């Protein structure tokens, strides 16, 4: 009996160790960080090291936080999942022999779904809500956030999972709270109408020549870094006859299979590539964001203007002034756009967040020189413009206001995935902060229309 019991204990502890999650509340994704933080927007949230101390200075008291979150890890979008499935089918149909390292692919079944959050992705958001409550305990104990979400399933579900984490932390602090789930969340429709949490209205951006810049920039870089990888894949998978496009799709199988696992266990696909190759892949994703939705696209930041004008309204307690993507019916109604809250939580997508960072002027040309299409620019050299730093699954931006000592005016600061992103163009101090008035003045791109008129020429 004793013998069996101890064997059982050993087995149980091994299983526990194997099932330990790669995700954590504080640090986010922590497995194989030498390459798992180089998967661009397919990386799981991780706490990005901050050059500037991200804690609230002792002499300051927080007065306001606007959070903007990306949904959690999901399955590939419908189109991509069909492509990946076809790639795997083709390998199975045409590869004549598998080298040792690649042998697992022979028995690999493509089972990923489409568009929905994975269990791992749901847990990311639960962790995010919990972490937010703790970080902002000064405010969260006595103030409920006002919630909005773009209405696609995975975004709404992310918002709901976030509230679960927030509620859990609230209950731990105050077991007798009268607050209970579900929290009310205002949904902004994606299929029609104006929506500051989902781009769609600006036709020159959606369908015009500027929509081609992303593809062009990524292709130039793909032609630099992918051919050697393609050659190696074709050696190890004779008969596959991969193109460089196939190689990118094949690499995508690493992050997607990783986040499809409940604990985020690193997929065997990941080990077929070097750390250097993952950095090149991450840079490919970064170029896509920079030239697709960021400052590298003439109308990228324009897509974030509506949200920034809403943020100004909330931060200053003044009605929204905007004629881009805001819905004036919603924004001029206290029930759907209150101005007296201290906490706001909005849920959206990666591309929208990139446009919003642009509209906030966080990556101007003197900080982020136009990213090279032919050599890798490091995240540091790009002034922090790195897709994995900015918009991983469950990414979160915090816009904080704080009252410090006897200062006449409040200060504003922005933190993206735990990294302070110094404000630009408003005389930021050594902690990356500006006074509220100077910050609002610096947002003239948004307050003056943000080139919205160029959307319809
Ligand atoms: C993959 O494609 C095959 C063949 O078209 C299809 O039968 C299968 O359902 C697909 N699997 C997934 C997970 O999409
Ligand atoms: C996340 O939220 C969805 C929708 O509310 C819910 O069905 C799911 O169970 C939640 N996930 C977890 C892990 O609780
Ligand atoms: C604005 O919001 C109102 C209230 O939800 C809705 O009825 C209307 O269709 C929306 N209009 C636009 C242009 O989005
Ligand atoms: C990268 O490529 C895009 C699209 O061709 C182009 O607009 C941009 O100027 C290029 N960037 C640099 C730094 O050359
Ligand atoms: C590709 O391989 C060639 C030959 O080994 C090498 O000279 C070249 O530097 C490699 N290119 C990249 C981008 O790694
Ligand atoms: C490999 O693919 C190329 C085009 O991608 C095609 O021209 C060629 O015939 C293919 N080779 C084989 C052996 O299938
Ligand atoms: C929706 O946005 C369009 C385009 O900016 C604007 O003309 C219209 O007035 C907006 N509608 C509402 C209800 O805000
Ligand atoms: C909305 O809030 C403002 C400021 O608190 C208040 O003056 C106004 O009466 C409110 N309007 C409605 C319709 O409740």
Topology:
Elements: H1 2-18, H2 33-36, E1 60-70, H3 78-94, H4 119-135, H5 137-140, E2 146-150, H6 153-173, E3 185-188, H7 203-207, H8 213-236, H9 244-260, H10 275-292, H11 305-316, H12 328-331, E4 343-348, H13 350-359, H14 387-390, E5 396-404, E6 411-416, E7 419-420, E8 434-435, H15 436-442, H16 444-447
Parallel strand pairs: 1-4, 2-3, 2-4
Antiparallel strand pairs: 1-5, 5-6, 6-7, 6-8
Helix pairs in contact: 3-9, 4-6, 8-9, 8-10
This protein binds 2-acetamido-2-deoxy-beta-D-glucopyranose (NAG) (8 copies).
One 2-acetamido-2-deoxy-beta-D-glucopyranose is lined by residues 224-225, 228.
Give the structure's gist in a few sentences.
This protein has 457 residues and is of the alpha/beta class.
Could you tell me the number of beta strands?
A: 8
Question: Could you describe the largest sheet, including whether it forms a barrel?
Answer: 8 strands, mixed
Please give the alpha-carbon distance between the first and last residues: 81 Å
Listed once per kind, the bound small molecules are: 2-acetamido-2-deoxy-beta-D-glucopyranose
Order of helices and strands: HHEHHHEHEHHHHHHEHHEEEEHH
Radius of gyration: 23 Å
- Uncertain regions spanning at least 5 consecutive residues: 1-18
Mean pLDDT: 95
SS-derived structural category: alpha/beta
**What count of domains describes the coordinates?**
1
Count every helix, treating DSSP H or I runs of 4 or more residues as helices. Answer: 16
**Outline:** globular
Task: Give the CATH architecture.
Answer: 3-Layer(aba) Sandwich
Strand content: 5-15%
| CATH class descriptor | Alpha Beta
CATH level 4 superfamily: Phosphoglycerate mutase-like
The helix fraction, in percent, is: 40-55%
What name does CATH use for the topology? Rossmann fold
Organism: Hypoxylon rubiginosum
Protein name: Acid phosphatase
């Amino acid at each position: 009996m004793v013998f069996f019991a101890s064997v059982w204990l050993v087995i149980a502890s091994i299983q526990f160790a194997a099932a330990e999650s790669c995700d954590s509340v504080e640090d986010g994704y922590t497995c194989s960080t030498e390459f798992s933080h180089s998967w661009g927007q397919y990386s799981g949230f991780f706490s990005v090291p901050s050059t500037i101390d991200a804690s609230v200075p002792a002499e300051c008291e927080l007065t306001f936080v606007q959070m903007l979150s990306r949904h959690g890890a999901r399955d590939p979008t419908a189109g991509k999942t069909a492509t990946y499935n076809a790639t795997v089918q083709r390998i199975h149909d045409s590869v004549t022999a598998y080298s040792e390292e690649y042998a697992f692919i022979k028995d690999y079944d493509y089972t990923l779904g489409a568009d929905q959050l994975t269990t791992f992705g749901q847990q990311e958001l639960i962790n995010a809500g919990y972490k937010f409550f703790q970080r902002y305990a000064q405010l969260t104990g006595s103030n409920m956030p006002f919630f909005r979400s773009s209405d696609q399933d995975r975004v709404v579900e992310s918002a709901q999972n976030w509230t679960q984490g927030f509620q859990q932390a609230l209950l731990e602090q105050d077991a007798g709270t009268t607050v209970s789930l579900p929290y009310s969340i205002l949904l902004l429709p994606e299929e029609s109408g104006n929506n500051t949490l989902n781009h769609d209205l600006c036709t020159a951006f959606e369908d015009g020549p500027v929509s081609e810049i992303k593809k062009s920039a990524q292709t130039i870089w793909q032609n630099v870094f992918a051919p050697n990888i393609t050659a190696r894949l074709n050696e190890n998978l004779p008969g596959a006859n991969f193109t460089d496009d196939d190689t990118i799709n094949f690499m995508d199988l690493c992050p997607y299979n990783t986040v499809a696992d409940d604990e985020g266990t690193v997929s065997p696909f990941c080990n077929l590539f070097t750390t250097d190759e993952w950095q090149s892949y991450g840079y490919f994703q970064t170029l896509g964001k920079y030239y697709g939705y960021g400052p590298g696209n003439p109308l990228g930041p324009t897509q974030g203007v509506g949200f920034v004008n809403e943020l100004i309204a909330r931060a200053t307690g003044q009605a929204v002034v905007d004629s881009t993507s805001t819905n004036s019916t919603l924004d001029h109604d206290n029930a759907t756009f209150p101005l007296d809250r201290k906490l706001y939580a909005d849920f959206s997508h990666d591309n929208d967040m990139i446009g919003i960072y642009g509209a906030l002027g966080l990556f101007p040309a003197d900080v982020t020189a136009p990213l090279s299409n032919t050599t890798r620019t490091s995240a540091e050299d790009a002034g922090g413009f790195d897709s994995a730093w900015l918009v991983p699954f469950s990414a979160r931006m915090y816009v904080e206001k704080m009252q410090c000592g006897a200062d006449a005016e409040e200060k504003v600061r922005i933190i993206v995935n735990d990294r302070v992103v110094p404000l630009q163009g408003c005389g930021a101090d050594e902690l990356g902060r500006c006074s509220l008035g100077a910050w609002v003045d610096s947002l003239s791109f948004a307050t003056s229309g943000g080139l919205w008129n160029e959307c319809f020429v």
